[in-house]
Amino acid sequence: MQTLTVDLGDRSYPIYIGAGVLQQSLLAQHVRGKQVMLVSNETVAPLYRAAVCQSLSEFEVDEVILPDGEAYKDLAHWNQIFDQLLLKRHNRTTTLIALGGGVIGDMAGFAAACYQRGVNFIQVPTTLLSQVDSSVGGKTGVNHPAGKNMIGAFHQPVAVLADTGVLNTLPDVELSAGLAEVIKYGLIHDADFFTWLENNMQALRSRNADALAYAIYRSCEIKAEMVALDEREAGVRALLNLGHTFGHAIETHAGYGQWLHGQAVAAGTMMAADLSCRMGWINADDVDRIERLFKAAGLPIKPPADMTPAHFNALMSIDKKVLDGRLRLVLLEAIGQAVVTDQFDQAALMQTLQGVR
Ligand SMILES: NC(=O)c1ccc[n+]([C@@H]2O[C@H](COP(=O)([O-])OP(=O)(O)OC[C@H]3O[C@@H](n4cnc5c(N)ncnc54)[C@H](O)[C@@H]3O)[C@@H](O)[C@H]2O)c1
Ligand SMILES: O=C(O)C(=O)C[C@@H](O)[C@H](O)[C@H](O)COP(=O)(O)O
Ligand SMILES: [Zn+2]
Prior knowledge:
Elements: E1 2-6, E2 13-18, E3 35-41, H1 44-53, E4 60-66, H2 75-87, E5 95-100, H3 102-114, E6 120-125, H4 128-134, E7 139-144, E8 147-154, E9 159-163, H5 172-189, H6 191-205, H7 209-229, H8 244-254, H9 261-278, H10 284-296, H11 309-316, E10 329-334, E11 337-341, H12 346-353
Parallel strand pairs: 2-9, 3-4, 3-5, 5-6, 6-9
Antiparallel strand pairs: 1-2, 7-8, 10-11
Zinc ion binds near residues 133, 181, 244, 261 and 265.
C-alpha cells in the first residue's frame, strides 16, 4: 500500500492506494462518533458493501442506496440521503462513507457538506476515474438540467481509500473513461508521465496491477499538489479543468449519462488541443500524439456530430471559469504545460467548434 497526503493544514487527509486496502481495517480510525451512513448505488453496494462493513462492527451503520447513473446526480435523488439521515436520527458526529464512482462521491460529499451544516465523510472510490480524480480535492455537487455540477460545495473528505482490487469488476468502457483524466495529468503537468502513458497504455487497458498502481499514484500525487496550492480554484487548480468546458457542454447537450464524463473530457481535450494548435502554442505533431493516446485508451476524439457551434457557445457561456462575462479556457502551451486564459482568437475558437482541422 502507498499513502499520499493532501496537505491542507488541520484539514489534511491521507489517500491510501493499493490492492486490498479495504481489508486493512483503515476505515474505523477515520470514523468519528458512533454513527455511519454508507452512501452507494445499486450496482456497487452488492459488490463491496460487505468489505466496507467488516471493519465497522463497532459502529451503527445505516445505508442509502441510490439508483446507478449520472442521470440521477440531481437534487431530487441527493435529497434521499437527507431523508435517510433524518429517518435514522444521525447527528453531527455522523460519518458518511461514499462507496462508488464519481457520481456517488460527488453526491455523498455534497450531502456531508450540508447535513447539519457539515459532517465528516470518507471517500471509497471504486472506479478508475474516482480513484485518480474525483475522490481527491473536495469538489462535491450535483448537476442541474442546464449545466454540469452547477450546485455544490468545496468540502474535503477526512480520508480516501482507493482499493485497486475493486477495479477488476469495472467494465472496460469505464476503465477507458478513467484513463481520460489520467492522460489529463500528463498533458497539464508532466510530459514524462505522458510519455510513460504512451508506452504503457496496453498494460493499463489489460489491467496490469503495477501499471495501474503507478498511474493512480502519480495522478493523485499531481492532483494533491495542485489542491494543496489552490484549494478553491483561484489559480492553478483550474488547470485540472482541461477539456472540461467543451466536455461538460457535450454531457449536458447529449443528456446526462449518454456520454460518460471521461469520454466527454477526451473529446473536449482534443478540442482544446486543436484550439491551442490554431493559436500556434502547440504543433500538429503534438495534436497527433494526443489523438493517438486517446484512441489507444479507447476514447472518442470528436464531439457528437449533432452539436453545432451555437450549442457549444450557449452551454460554455455558463462555465464556472467564466469571469466578468469572458470565457476562460484551459489550453496547452506544450505537452506537460497548460494555461487558463481568455487570450485566444474568437475566429480560431469558431473553427475548433466547427470541427475543422
Ligand atoms: N469531484 C471531482 O473532482 C470530480 C472529478 C472528476 C469527475 N467527477 C464526476 O464524477 C462523475 C463520473 O464518475 P465515474 O466515472 O466514476 O462514474 P460513475 O460514478 O457513474 O461510475 C461509473 C459506473 O461504474 C459502476 N461501478 C463503479 N465502481 C464499480 C466497480 N468497482 N465494479 C463495477 N462497476 C462499478 C457504477 O455503478 C457506474 O455504473 C461525473 O459526475 C463527474 O462530473 C468529479
Ligand atoms: O478537481 C478539480 O478541480 C477538477 O476540475 C477535476 C475535474 O476532473 C472534475 O470533472 C470536476 O468535477 C470539474 O469541476 P467543475 O468545477 O468544472 O464542475
Ligand atoms: Zn473531470
